[in-house]
Each structure stands twice: as C-alpha cells, then as structure tokens.
Write a structure and sequence with these properties.
This protein has 438 residues and is α+β, with helices and mostly antiparallel strands. It has 13 helices and 23 strands. The protein has helices spanning 9-18, 40-59, 76-80, 83-86, 150-154, 157-164, 209-226, 274-283, 309-320, 355-372, 383-392, 403-408, 429-437, and strands at 22-24, 36-38, 64-67, 88-93, 100-102, 123-126, 129-132, 142-145, 170-179, 194-204, 234-238, 250-258, 261-272, 289-290, 297-298, 301-308, 321-326, 329-334, 345-349, 375-377, 397-401, 410-415, 421-425. The strands form 7 sheets. It has a 7-stranded mixed beta sheet with strand order 3-9-10-16-13-12-11. Strands 20-19-21-22-23 form a 5-stranded mixed beta sheet, with helices on both faces. The chain has a 3-stranded antiparallel beta sheet with strand order 5-4-6. The protein starts with 8 loop residues before the first helix and ends with a helix. The relative contact order is 0.12. The structure holds adenosine-5'-triphosphate (ATP). Adenosine-5'-triphosphate is lined by residues 148, 180, 182, 191-192, 195, 197, 264-267, 306, 308, 310-311.
Length: 438
C-alpha cells in the first residue's frame, strides 16, 4: 500500500509547519533568515534523535566521555585553530542590487541570479558570528559564538585525562548548538545560521588511526540505519586533496539525496594531532597522553565523526514521508521507526461527548502513558480525522475506545502503515505494544 513518492521540499516544509514540527524563526516579526524554531513535534523528534545517539555512542560504551562545554569560549581558541583567519567562504556581491552570494555555489559566477546585475570580485567572508562579552565594549571583549562544538572538547582534553584517567583509545562526545554566519542560508533547515551538532572526538594511538577511521565509518552507517534513514539515498564520498582541510589526510562526507540535490549530511575526518598541538602551543599547556604500560608519552591523533542535528531531522523526515490512497482518499503519513515517532500511541474515545467512553478511554490512556511515556490523548474531530492527523505526524498506533469496550474490555488498535485494525484486550495492551514498539 505504501508508495515512495517524489518528495518536494514544499511538501516537507508545509507538513512541518502545519503539524507543529518546525516553524520559521521569530515568525511574527517576519522571521530571521537562517533560523528555525522547533515546535512540539519537532522537539520530540529531536529528543528521540539525541537519545538514540547517546544510547549508541555514549551509554552503551565504556570509552566515551560526554561533555557539555560553553558556547562562548576564550577567543584565543579560535586563533589557535585558524578559524579567525581561515574560517571563511568565498563571497561575491552584486554591483546593482548588493545581494551577496556564496561564490562556490553559483552556476553563473558573472551575473546576479536575482536581478541580472554584474557580480563583483570574490572576497573571503568569515563565517564566525561575533559577540561582545562583558560591560566594556572594546576589542578585548570580542568573542564568537562557537562555529563547531569540537573545540569545546579539545580544550577540555586535559581535564578529562586528569579527572577520568581514560585509557587510549577513548572519546569525548558532545551535543550542542553551533553558529555560522552563512552567506546564503537555504534549503529549509539544511543550511541555517544556528544549528545543533552531535560530535565525537576519538583519540587514538597514531599508529592505529586507519583502523579506527574504518571502525567509525561503520558505526555511523549503523546508526543512520537505526534512526530510519533511507540508506539507498546515503552515499559516502571521499573528499579529495583539494577540498580537504590541510591538517586532514582523510575525510569522508556522508551525502544524502535531498530534493535539492545530493549534499553533505555528516562528515568523518581524521584530524591527526592538529587541534591538540595547536591548543598546546597557544595555551602553553601540555596536551599529551602517557601510556601507563610502555611509559611512552605522545600527542594522540583524532578521528572525528561529526553529525548535524538539523540535517538529521530533515533526512529522517524525507526518509519517512509517504503518500498513498486509503479507500479512495489520498493520505500522507510519516513512516517513522517507533524510536523516532514523537508520539508512540494516540488514545481516543469514539465520541468525546459520551462520559462513559471518555472515562474508559482515560483509564487506558493513563495506563499506556505511564508505561510508554509519549502517548497522546486525541479527541478532536471524528475518528477518521484523528487517524489522518496521527498518520501525518507518524504516530505508529491509534487506540479507540468504543461502546463494545464497556462490554468486552477490549479496544480497537489501528496500525499507521497498513491501516489494519484489530481488537486487543485492555489487559494485553502493554505486552502488545512492548512487542510492536521495540
Ligand atoms: P557544508 O560544506 O555543507 O557547509 P561543512 O563541511 O562546513 O558543511 P562541517 O564543518 O563538517 O560542515 O560541520 C559538521 C556538520 O555540521 C555537517 O556535516 C552538517 O551536518 C552540520 N552543519 C554544518 N553547517 C551547517 C549549517 N549551516 N546548517 C545546518 N547544519 C550544518
């Protein structure tokens, strides 16, 4: 019954807004380019992605240290890493309408795509968002909103070694906001100015980097499958010498086939000892590792799996979007894996103006909610409308309490994908859903 459709961005953007997943940022004031707000459904989806990421990459391991570093960092951090001098994109400005474009993304590099005017010469535009810290506004108070979460981990390397006594190989993991003053934010939540990253810095013995690079590639692929990405649309692409950062001798981009083209979803980079060496140099702090058995002291090398939350959300939505026809009515549903579904089950009384049905339904609702958490009460409109709404937000199951329930202590359970309905005894509901949602 389910068919993969030609998904357009319009369909995803409109569903996201209509159903409370994602809204344009500060919309009542006309928005702010490159920002989006996550609504109730989008926030729950985000939580599910975070939980799945944490379960796989932190909680199920013994070699990973989870941190939550400050977004504002001493500006020397960004001098050390080269961001102040080099974290820029090539920019051109139209001489007629003054609109600015990212030069490397333009097909026609001479003529303005907006007004047909002549484009000026290429300049490097630094993408770090500046801010002032403290009450005195002088150059000393300038710092940046971090453009990546990675550096919050590198500057804490010594703290982790000193407090946790980790054995190599070990990793640090962080989920948090990052900011980039993108020249042309575009494609919904694909390229925004404020976004979230889920990053790992995995420290290894330099002799073993190749083995761990392959290992992390496999781990990332496994996780993408676990969150329901359509793996036929994911491609790993070796980044060539010209495009790779100078300190990296190997980088893979995982690209996803979005409606606007095949573009980066995640990155996996071998960063060598670049970051620790730079920070050691600029901060005059030793950032090393001493092997307790061999007594050898060295700077570990780093493998960095870097995953963007917002691009994950977009890819999860695109992978789950389905259109089909039920009876003769077209419908849209999100085929989320149960672990991604914002709500696992929707519970409703057949009619909301019948107290005996509402009471029985509330008992079932309370029972399921205490067991499964994200269970939603839905008594809006008629049952058909509720099904459509729950389908569109990807709720795997709807439970309806009707007059028969009062006699047989059983309810109707409807499956989102097949739309099949079955009668299940209230006493068996918990076991039924434990199995179905696992
Ligand atoms: P791009 O080439 O698309 O600008 P990038 O190579 O600069 O991306 P990285 O610096 O490798 O990106 O950042 C790691 C991850 O953070 C990316 O794989 C992506 O998932 C996410 N990311 C980076 N920039 C943005 C952005 N402007 N909006 C949303 N997510 C982003």
């Amino acid at each position: 019954m389910s068919e993969k459709t030609d998904i357009t961005m319009e369909k995803i953007v409109s569903l996201s807004k209509r159903r409370g997943f994602i809204f344009p940022g500060s919309e009542i004031y006309g928005g702010l380019a490159g920002t989006y707000d996550y609504g109730p459904l989008g926030s729950l989806l985000k939580e599910n992605i975070k939980q799945s990421w944490l379960n796989k990459f932190v909680h199920s391991r013994t070699d990973m240290y989870f941190v939550d570093a400050a977004i504002l960092m001493n500006p020397k951090t960004w001098e050390a890493t080269g961001h102040v001098d080099h974290f820029s994109d090539p920019m051109v400005e139209c001489e007629k309408c003054n609109k600015r474009f990212r030069e490397d993304q333009l097909e026609d590099k001479e003529i303005c795509e907006s007004c047909g005017g002549k484009l000026g010469s290429v300049k490097q535009f630094n993408m770090m968002l500046q801010t002032k810290v403290g009450a005195v506004e002088d150059s000393a108070s300038t710092t940046y909103l971090r453009p990546e979460t990675a550096q919050g981990m590198f500057v804490n390397y010594k703290n982790i070694v000193d407090t946790m006594a980790p054995k190599l190989p070990f990793g640090m993991a962080q989920i948090g906001k990052a900011f980039r003053n993108e020249i042309t934010p575009r494609d919904f939540i694909f390229r925004v100015r404020e976004f979230e990253q889920m990053e790992i810095e995995y420290f290894v013995n330099p002799a073993e980097w190749e083995k761990y690079f392959e290992y992390w590639k496999d781990e990332m692929i496994e996780w993408m499958g676990a969150i329901g990405l359509d793996m036929s649309r994911v491609h790993d692409v070796e980044v060539g010498d010209d495009d790779r950062a100078h300190y990296s001798s190997r980088t893979i981009d995982f690209e996803f086939e979005y409606p606007f083209g095949q573009k980066e979803l995640y990155g996996l980079a071998y960063r060598g000892d670049y970051d620790l060496t730079k920070h050691a140099d600029y901060s005059k702090t030793k950032l090393q590792y001493t092997d307790q058995t061999t007594n050898e002291t060295f700077v570990p090398h780093v493998i960095e799996p870097s995953m963007g939350m917002d691009r994950t959300i977009l890819a999860v939505l695109l992978s789950a979007y389905r259109e089909d026809v039920v009876g003769d009515e077209p419908r849209v549903y999100l085929d989320f894996k149960p672990n991604m579904a914002p709500y696992k089950i929707a519970v409703s009384p057949l009619m909301k103006n019948k107290p005996e049905l509402v009471e029985a339904a509330q008992r079932v609702f309370g029972q399921l909610k205490s067991k499964f958490g994200n269970v939603v009460w839905d008594d809006n409109g008629n049952v058909g409308k509720r099904y459509r709404r729950q389908d569109e937000i990807g709720t795997p199951f709807c439970v309806v309490i009707d007059y028969e329930t009062l006699d047989d202590q059983a309810v109707t359970v409807r499956d989102r994908n097949t739309t099949d309905q079955e009668r299940i005894a209230i006493d068996d509901l918990e076991n039924y859903f434990v199995e179905k949602l696992s």
